């Protein structure tokens, strides 16, 4: 049980991160993961560039709190959360969440939960450049709905 | 003194990433601080009216009734959009 | 839309597979994936070795059918399913399922669906070596239950 | 002729990975084939009684009522345990 939680401008290597997640614990039979990428289109507009701002200090605390809550809900082994900040281009990796567990049901649930809470509770903000100019990305109603279902 | 931070679209709109402020005696919660800041001229007037304004006290999400005291780090920001 | 479905004795590189999955489509903002590993313990016994048998021909057809059904249910872009056969050791990779989509909800659902159906419909059989000798792994009731919830 | 395959624990138990068989005229479905094979001596007797026995015709899962005809590939196996 050693969580990896990182906020960084540098890219990350998914294969390496998953290997390091699973290397520690031979009980882990299941790893569910999510990789988020910059899309080249959003709300109907082409996106040529994106920048990600965050709230240093609070971000790491919020992510650690979300992971701790996932641990309280599911029997999981190790967790990796990596989120990039700064300037990104279409297809660039933004976020990786990976969860190992003995069985896949818990790994999937915890991974999806962490993503849903990250989307609504971790202080990151996206700004994208489109042919119409730069704009701050609006929060999506569907993200709030996704997070709400875990309150049941 | 309290530390106040503004992020993302709010930072741009206010033209400020943050400030240090001597907390007046009569301000004891976030609602009070918001009223104080909204009494300033220009864009500040619209601060309290920002849709879905989020607030944090010492890096934890808080609502308008949250107590604040000397030394606290307060943040105002729009809904988050990471991931 | 180009699915990768492979049954092989060789190991695979997760980072490379995910990179090749996402390289093709810049609309893909979300990749959900599942990695299954050999556990060093099962049903209370230590496992020192595992072998995987399959039904050549039917396996590939069954996997393609499961992926096609996922495509009918969710709006997804690309899918990768790789399943190893032959002799494996604890911590070895067994299976990778990865699904790309515009949004994470569909990627997660389709990935979990494919795993649940693979577990109950693709003709693979595990045999493991424990201190008590070799034994064929029994099908798990929980896998049937997991697959059944998609029938609703 | 039909081709019959046996997999995993069933293959071990029967001591056979498969066989080619001339389909008798009176056998027209999987239930009939199962009865034919179960009439053999030794471990074959228990074939029809195998718990959760799975069957496939031409590489598609089928149940006992499935029709079979000349040239078909039939398989018998225990519940699958991949993934």
What features would you describe in this structure?
With 152 residues, chain A is α+β, with helices and mostly antiparallel strands. Chain A is built from 4 helices and 10 strands; from the N terminus they run E-H-E-E-E-E-H-E-E-E-H-E-E-H. Chain A has helices at residues 14-23, 58-73, 104-121, 141-148; strands at 4-8, 30-37, 41-42, 45-46, 49-54, 79-84, 86-88, 93-101, 124-130, 133-136. Chain A has a 4-stranded mixed β-sheet, sandwiched between helices. In chain A, strand 9 and strand 10 (133-136) form a beta hairpin. The longest helix of chain A is centred in the last third of the chain and has 18 residues, at 104-121. The two termini of chain A are 27 Å apart. Helices cover 19% and strands 25% of the residues of chain B. In chain B, strands 2-1-5-3-4 form a 5-stranded mixed β-sheet. Chain B has helices at residues 8-14, 30-38; strands at residues 2-6, 18-21, 54-57, 60-62, 73-77. Chain B has one domain: Beta-grasp domain (Ubiquitin-like (UB roll)). Chain B contains 2 helices and 5 strands, in the order E-H-E-H-E-E-E. Chain B is globular and about 35 Å long. The termini of chain B are far apart. The longest helix of chain B is centred in the middle third of the chain and has 9 residues, at 30-38. With 83 residues, chain B is α+β, with helices and mostly antiparallel strands. Strand 2 (30-37) of chain A pairs antiparallel with strand 2 of chain C.
Topology:
The complex is a heterotetramer, with two copies of chain A (152 residues) and two copies of chain B (83 residues).
Chain A: E1 4-8, H1 14-23, E2 30-37, E3 41-42, E4 45-46, E5 49-54, H2 58-73, E6 79-84, E7 86-88, E8 93-101, H3 104-121, E9 124-130, E10 133-136, H4 141-148
Parallel strand pairs in A: 1-6
Antiparallel strand pairs in A: 2-8, 3-4, 5-7, 5-9, 6-8, 9-10
Helix pairs in contact in A: 2-3, 3-4
Chain B: E1 2-6, H1 8-14, E2 18-21, H2 30-38, E3 54-57, E4 60-62, E5 73-77
Parallel strand pairs in B: 1-5
Antiparallel strand pairs in B: 1-2, 3-4, 3-5
